[in-house]
């Protein structure tokens, strides 16, 4: 066909094309597949002036293999961005929220105040000086004056901590204060001894002698606290108590020096009185002698929890899972199992076997974790417990972590439990009282009372330092609950899942493939 004939044929086709035919408007002369199955090439040049100019392809169209990013920024990417951001915010909030401004909550700390001062004994004091002291003190004991300044609602000292005055309650003495502190009922106790007033008179001359450095006795209050309970928390509280008592001492000095008889006092009393009138002595129960061992009381369980995560992941992911198929299917032309063929294992026994392997992992992990504080120089161990007891308790807490993580892996699959398990670890750690006690933390973090991490920290501090050892039984009971309950739930779910998989395998094997 000549060129003229071809042009004529194309023109005829275009002329006789009906309006209802699905012809592409942007591609004149191209018929749809409904009109013809023969491909028709689009002319290189059209009469449309808008299409006459050749549009250069974009860089993205020319080199599509270099532009991977637009394909990755899909809806799933934005969902992952949101999820990871939420995780980071939660992590940051838990850490910083737990440790943010604990000084503003020192007022929540309860400190007992007991005034055992017997008052002034003026039998060896000159009459003129006796009258002077009675005028200044309003014929009250020095302990009563101090107690009044502390308990006065208008006094700044009253708003430092929450003071619990037991001075007028029967049955109290220094030993009972110590007992209450050791049991953890109160954070500390301020004790004003029986000779508190008379020690002040030791700075004054007697009828037969003048005061000397050897004869004077310090006017000392005693602050009793359990350091092993929470080293960091007590460091904060101790600072506030020391500052408060220092302010109290300066207030007594100011009151004496501004009295009408100040010149008489300056000429009569020993000069050391004006250096610091009242001292604060400390009695530390269950002291933390090794600074790092305070961190060991909770770092041990962080590492053990991570080890439990690794153990559960390894057992569920990499150890043979074909054990579930043993004895399930019968091979073709096989009427009975051969001698070499393994028997079918009950589903519950398979689950117990995996727990047994995890228990072995936890035992080895505990051995090396427990060993580190034991071999470091100057490590502590309370006289009430032994190193073997410490090992048994750490392992016991580790089993509770393993039980929890097995349950999470069963509920969220082995590939999906790591993120939630890590977030749970952060929540348990920050709410355990490991770094700071709940008393100086926001109220939300008291949720830690439900988790085994809290009781692990409390128990290990009892073992290392002897703090709150009367509550050791409670630590064992709570941790045991976190071992048994998640384990029973996991066994029930895993047993059912294994049985379901076996049924699926039998059903699949019974279907004959089509030829």
TrEMBL record:
The keyword Lipid metabolism does not apply. Pfam families: DUF3533. Residues 1-56 are annotated as: Disordered. Residues 1-10 have a biased composition (Polar residues). Keywords: Membrane, Transmembrane, Transmembrane helix. Its main location: membrane. InterPro entries: DUF3533, T7SS_ABC-Transporter. It is a multi-pass membrane protein. GO terms for cellular component: membrane. It is found in: Membrane. Residues 82-485 form the DUF3533 domain. The chain crosses the membrane at residues 77-98, 256-275, 295-316, 351-372, 392-412, 424-453, 473-494. The keyword Transmembrane helix applies. This is DUF3533 domain-containing protein. It comes from Podila minutissima. The lineage of its organism: Eukaryota, Fungi, Fungi incertae sedis, Mucoromycota, Mortierellomycotina.
């Amino acid at each position: 066909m000549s060129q003229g004939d071809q042009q004529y044929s194309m023109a005829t086709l275009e002329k006789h094309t009906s309006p209802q035919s699905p012809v592409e408007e942007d591609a004149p002369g191209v018929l749809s597949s409904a009109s013809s199955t023969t491909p028709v090439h689009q002319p290189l040049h059209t009469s449309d002036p808008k299409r006459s100019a050749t549009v250069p392809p974009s860089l993205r169209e020319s080199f599509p293999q270099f532009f991977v990013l637009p394909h990755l920024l899909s809806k799933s990417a934005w969902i992952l961005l949101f999820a990871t951001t939420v995780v980071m915010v939660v992590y940051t909030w838990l850490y910083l929220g737990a440790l943010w401004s604990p000084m503003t909550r020192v007022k929540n700390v309860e400190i007992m105040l007991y005034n055992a001062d017997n008052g002034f004994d003026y039998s060896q004091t000159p009459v003129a000086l006796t009258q002077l002291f009675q005028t200044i003190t309003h014929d009250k004991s020095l302990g009563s004056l101090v107690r009044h300044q502390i308990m006065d609602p208008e006094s700044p000292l009253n708003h430092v901590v929450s003071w619990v005055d037991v001075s007028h309650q029967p049955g109290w003495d220094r030993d009972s204060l110590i007992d209450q502190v050791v049991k953890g009922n109160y954070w500390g106790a301020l004790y004003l001894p029986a000779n508190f007033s008379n020690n002040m008179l030791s700075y004054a001359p007697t009828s037969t002698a003048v005061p000397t450095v050897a004869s004077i006795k310090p006017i000392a209050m005693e602050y009793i606290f359990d350091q092993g309970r929470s080293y960091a928390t007590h460091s904060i509280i101790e600072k506030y108590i020391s500052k408060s008592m220092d302010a109290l001492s300066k207030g007594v000095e100011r009151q004496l020096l501004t009295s009408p008889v100040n010149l008489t006092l300056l000429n009569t009393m020993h000069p050391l009185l004006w250096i610091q009138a009242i001292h604060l002595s400390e009695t530390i129960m269950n002291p933390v002698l090794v600074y790092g061992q305070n961190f060991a009381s909770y770092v041990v369980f962080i590492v053990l929890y991570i080890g439990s995560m690794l153990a559960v992941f390894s057992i569920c992911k990499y150890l043979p899972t074909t054990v579930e198929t043993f004895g399930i299917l019968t091979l073709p032309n096989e009427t009975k199992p051969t001698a070499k063929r393994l028997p079918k294992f009950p589903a519950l026994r398979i689950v117990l076997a995996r727990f047994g392997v995890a228990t072995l992992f936890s035992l080895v992990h505990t051995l090396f974790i427990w060993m580190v504080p034991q071999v470091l120089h100057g490590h502590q161990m309370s006289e009430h417990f032994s190193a073997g007891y410490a090992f048994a308790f750490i392992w016991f807490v580790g089993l509770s972590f393993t039980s929890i993580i097995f349950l999470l892996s069963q509920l969220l699959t082995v590939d999906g439990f790591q993120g939630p398990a890590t977030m749970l670890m952060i929540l348990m750690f920050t709410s355990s009282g490991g770094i700071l006690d709940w008393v100086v933390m926001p109220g939300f973090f008291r949720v830690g009372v439900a988790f085994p991490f809290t009781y692990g920290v409390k128990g290990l501090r009892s073992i290392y330092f002897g703090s709150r050892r009367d509550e050791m039984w409670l630590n064992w009971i709570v941790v045991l609950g976190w071992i048994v309950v998640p384990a029973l739930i996991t066994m029930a779910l895993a047993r059912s899942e294994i049985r379901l998989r076996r049924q699926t395998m039998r059903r699949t094997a019974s279907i004959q493939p089509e030829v």
